[in-house]
Amino acid sequence: MAEDMTLFWGSGSPPCWRVMIALEEKKLQGYQQKLLSFEKMEHKSKEVMELNPRGQLPAFKHGNNIVNESYAACLYLESQFKSQGPQLIPDSPEEQAMVYQRMFEAQTLQQKLSDVIYYTWRVPEAERLESALKRNKEALTAELQLWEQYLQKMEAGSYLAGKSFSMADVVAFPVVAYAVRFGLSQDRYPQLGLYYSLVKERPSVKASWPPHWLQNPQGMDTLKDL
Amino acid sequence: MAEDMTLFWGSGSPPCWRVMIALEEKKLQGYQQKLLSFEKMEHKSKEVMELNPRGQLPAFKHGNNIVNESYAACLYLESQFKSQGPQLIPDSPEEQAMVYQRMFEAQTLQQKLSDVIYYTWRVPEAERLESALKRNKEALTAELQLWEQYLQKMEAGSYLAGKSFSMADVVAFPVVAYAVRFGLSQDRYPQLGLYYSLVKERPSVKASWPPHWLQNPQGMDTLKDL
Q1: How many domains does chain A have?
Q2: Where's the GST C-terminal domain (chains A, B) (predicted)?
Q3: What percent helix, strand, coil does chain A show, rounded to 5?
Q4: B-contacting residues of A 46-85, CB under 8 Å?
Q5: Angle value at C-alpha A138, between A135 and A144, nearest 5 degrees
Q6: CA distance to A102, A157, A213, A219, B42, per residue, from A170 (Å)
Q7: How confident is the model over A40-64, as pLDDT tens digits?
Q8: Do B107 and B61 share a structural domain?
Q9: For a 10 Å CB count at each end of chain A, is N or C smaller?
Q10: Does A157 lie at the interface with B, CB-CB under 8 angstroms?
Q11: CATH code, A23
């Protein structure tokens, strides 16, 4: 089946990475793929725009079915290949509720992280304000503390939604790893640090680790004061 | 089953409304519910915070399972009550891909709409800039035009993801209705206008129509120039 799939992706992008983790978990290695450069604006290239009129990565196709939104692609892959690889969305109501809940809370974490990391990229220079960036940092700090509390309440060695690796981890781990890459203190956020250490060793995650992070292991310090 | 469910909600909030539409579609009338006032800050009340530490609405519980994120609640309800009411996420790969894709694109529509409608509410007065609001309006205009194109390519009378009403409509319709409520021109966005007219008559939508919109049918003109 995987030869029927095509993924255009960018290195380090959490939305791209989560689709790649889902593909690995679902044993769908061997898909067609092309690594594109955001710096060279290749996400606006004709081949991407034909799949994704938003000009965003990932752009993903299975046969003739186009599923570019990363959450959409992850849910589609789990649904279509439910019995292949581990089940990422449990059937039991209790577990399923938790997986869905944390999956979508991860979008807020991603948003608040982006509001800080991409502030200077998104806001034209003439409009940048220390007060706005400070507020974004405070919102991200509160968000990170909420996740610390969530993890604190779980048994040691748990994943985000319970004892098993789930779709909550597929979508959220790239965001956590991104925060670490941008300098999140694992001393001040020890639960997130432990979670990061646990999941980074997972084969699906290692197999899809951003190549430019491997080449340049040194990250940024954007979040060091948080 | 529905007596085991509790929903705290606010009138007109698209995230609340989509959960209510999903409950109606899944024939889960009779759930416990409480209408709260955002103006009175009741979403920060103790009863909400106990369910949802974010202090946001909706706050939703089924038995002991808490699913507050609106997309999470919708997916949970469809999964747990798949054969009750219409199937909102089709099994066929082609149809399913489209439903998931449009579901998650609707989040971008909601975000860009919020960036305009809530601009003065979110940005402190001293930081407000005409240039920033103008950019947000341009981004929303481009987004609305994209949805016009999507609908244009569908057969007349279609829903967002095909001939059948689906989860894409459950999550997106409240956002479209919100845009109309805030003055979106149905002359300049005729496809969205037709879509709005089609779906607003659906029983699940009528049954959950925001009560304060019924009391005050006159909306705002925030988007009139878009």
Answers
A1: 2
A2: 92-220
A3: 55, 10, 35
A4: 53-54, 62-73, 75-76, 79-80
A5: 145
A6: 11, 16, 19, 22, 34
A7: 999 999 999 999 999 999 999 999 9
A8: no
A9: N
A10: no
A11: 3.40.30.10
Structural domain boundaries, residue B143: 93-215
Residue B1 predicted with pLDDT over 70:
no
Domain match, A6 and A39 both: yes
- For A:158-217, CB contacts with B below 8 A are none
Amino acid at B212: H
Residues in chain A, pLDDT under 50: none
B55 and B167 both lie in a single domain: no
How many residues are given for chain B?
226
Instruction: Provide mean pLDDT across the span B35-59.
Output: 96
* Beta strands A5-10; A59-62: pairing state: antiparallel
Smallest Cβ–Cβ distance between A96 and the set B68, B79, B126 belongs to B79
Q: For every residue of A41-63, which 3-state class applies, written as one string?
A: CHHHCHHHHHHCCCCCCCEEEEC
Q: Say yes or no: ipTM exceeds 0.95.
A: yes
Residues B18 and B130 occupy one common structural domain: no
Q: What is the pLDDT of residues A146-175, one digit of tens each?
A: 999 999 999 999 999 999 999 999 999 999
